[in-house]
Amino acid sequence: MDSNILAITPVFFSGIIVGMIFFHAGIIAPSLFKTISSAEAGPFLRVIFPKLFMLVLILGATSTLILFASGGSMVAKMVSIITTAFMFICYSIIPATNAAKDTGNESTFNRLHRISVVFTVIVLLLNILWVFLI
Q1: Domain region containing 73
Q2: What would the pLDDT profile of 14-27 be if each residue is shown by its tens digit?
Q3: Which of 48, 50, 71, 133 is 20 to 30 A from 26, alpha carbon to alpha carbon?
Q4: Is 52 helix (H, G, I), strand (E, B) or coil?
Q5: Residue 38 in contact with residue 105, Cβ under 8 Å?
Q6: CB proximity list for 94: less than 8 A, separation 6 or greater
Q7: How many CA atoms lie within 13 A of 41 on its CB side?
Q8: Burial of residue 104 (number of CB atoms within 10 Å: 0-12, 13-18, 19+)
C-alpha cells in the first residue's frame, strides 16, 4: 500500500470519528428527546449508542495498527490508543448502565452515564486536536 495513503488514513479516521460523535450525540439524541418521550427514545438509544462506541473503537484500533506499522507520530499513536481504550470502556459499561436505569438505581446510572459522556467528549476533543499537534 502506498505510504502516503497510510500516513493520512489515521487523520481521515479521526475526521470520521469526530463526525460520528457530533452526529450521534449532538444531533440524533437531542432531536430524539425533542420529538418523542424518554420512554420511547430509550430503546432506540440502546441500539444506536453501542454501535457508535463499537465503530469508533474499530476505527481507533485500526488507526493504532496503521500508526505502529507505518511509524506514525507518538501523539497520533497515543490518541488512537486512548480512543480505542475509552470506547472499549464505554461499550463495556452499557449493560451495567442499562441495568441501573431499568432497576431505578439513578446514582449508579448517573455515574456510568457520566463516564461514557466524559470519555466520549475526551475522544472527540483528542481527535479534533491531534492533527494540529503533529
Answers
A1: 3-132
A2: 999 999 999 998 89
A3: 133
A4: helix
A5: no
A6: 46, 49, 50, 53
A7: 12
A8: exposed
